[in-house]
Amino acid sequence: MARRNVWSGEETMELLEIIKEHNFMHLFATASRGQKEYDVYRMIEEEMQKNGFNGKDAGQIYHKWKNLKRAFYQSKKQNKGRAICEFAEELGDILEKPWALKRREPDPPVEPVEGEPAPVKKRNNAQIKTIRSQIVAKLAKAQNDNTDEFAKKWNDLNDYEFKLYKRKEKEQTVVMNRLLEESKTSLMTRCRDMLAGRSMLITEVVEGEEDEEDEEVEVEIDRLNVIEIVTTDLEIAPGEEETVKDFQMQSDRRSHFFVDQFAERLFSILFTFRYYIGTMAAKQLSPIVKSYLILYNAVQVLGWCYMLYQLIAYYTIDKGTEKTLWEYIGFTVILFQNAAVLEIVHAFTRIVPSNPIITTFQVLSRVMVVCGVVMATPTGKDSPGLPLALLAWSVTEIIRYAYYALNLIDAVPQVLVFLRYTTFIVLYPIGVTGELLCFYWAQSHVAKTKQWSIEMPNTANFTFSYLYFLWAVMLLYIPLFPQMYMHMFAQRKKILGSGSSHAGKQKNN
């Protein structure tokens, strides 16, 4: 069986280099078919053996050269005169460029040294050129160029945004300092006039008829009517007028000095307080505060997990117990639900970026259900809405506090973000339904006993109906629930987008 004519890339490159260097194309053109053409291939075989390639004979060289030429011309024909094949560049140099008719003399043979292997000619270009390697090289070069250009543009953009931020911050600082200086001057002037007993002029704008211009009326306010000053008429002996005037001038200077000092101290305290409150939210949390928030959220997660376990166990493991649901789970609910009051403190002290007003309403509404409805009335404990509210609260708070805790260490998984902004679709209506049922069951007891109600007549001349208060809170759910529900959908769209998991971390705690 004849041996397969398999050529490596290095052997093919050596063949093309030999044909190009020794101008074998001229010999191919002048030699006739037959023995003379075979002699040309024998010459190529000898050159390859000199250079260390002994595995190819003249017949194999003939077939390889024939296949290379066929692939080159077919590629040119199919690609409109442009060859796209292996070794296209080298074949183009050989087959398309005219060569001198004179054959270049081969290099003189190198005399072998006794005891050493025969010298092998090494090519400078030892790289195996294929279409794939050329494409990969071009892609790598383009990728490097694009990466460098992108990095440069990105750095320029960051520098430009930082310059804009610094410029805006500087402008706002100048405006704030100017306003503070004006406020300081105005405050010191008013305090000085007030303590010195001078009258102050206030310009009041009075609205007149449609065709009349606004009138400015100067209303004189005598501060002496506010501060009652007891004066005593003293008889001044002749010659003591100058002494009294000097004493009065010194007293005025002392009062002005103390007023200035007092105003400066007060203004400094107010400015420091405003700056502290305004910038605390923008600063990084201290390690102590951050550790406290992580601990608080972790404890809440454990507490609400235990509450969910108790709720499930009451209807499964301990089914048939003589205790009511509130007797079984009430202490855990009171402990961890009322612990949420600390979130109001967190919001007002600005250690978390939550809105203090919204946080207060959200927390106190649940505290009202627990303390003002369920704990206060026996009918509230028997309400069918209690297990619904506890189920919705438990699942919601487990997800929420876990999200807060992991967000503080930048380790929120995508599944938790999805649950945080998806489970409310079902849990929010369930929780609101349970809360309203608790209110409704409690109001029947309050209507009979008039619990926590104050009726006329009494010494304070004041009346209060706890029944009406419960109904007022229930009616507030009508306008507030749709707004909060739609707000959560807006937050979901902002965080999750249209089906994509956008991990924009909003650190609410």
Automatic annotation (TrEMBL):
It comes from the Eukaryota. GO terms for cellular component: endoplasmic reticulum membrane. One of its GO terms (biological process) is sphingolipid biosynthetic process. InterPro entries: Myb_DNA-bind_4, Tyr_Pase-like_PTPLA. Its EC number is 4.2.1.134. The chain crosses the membrane at residues 293-313, 325-345, 357-376, 388-406, 418-442, 462-485. Pathway: Lipid metabolism; fatty acid biosynthesis. It is found in: Endoplasmic reticulum membrane; Membrane. It catalyses: a very-long-chain (3R)-3-hydroxyacyl-CoA = a very-long-chain (2E)-enoyl-CoA + H2O. Residues 4-91 form the Myb/SANT-like DNA-binding domain. PANTHER family: VERY-LONG-CHAIN (3R)-3-HYDROXYACYL-COA DEHYDRATASE. Catalyzes the third of the four reactions of the long-chain fatty acids elongation cycle. This endoplasmic reticulum-bound enzymatic process, allows the addition of two carbons to the chain of long- and very long-chain fatty acids/VLCFAs per cycle. This enzyme catalyzes the dehydration of the 3-hydroxyacyl-CoA intermediate into trans-2,3-enoyl-CoA, within each cycle of fatty acid elongation. Thereby, it participates to the production of VLCFAs of different chain lengths that are involved in multiple biological processes as precursors of membrane lipids and lipid mediators. This is Very-long-chain (3R)-3-hydroxyacyl-CoA dehydratase. It comes from Anopheles minimus.
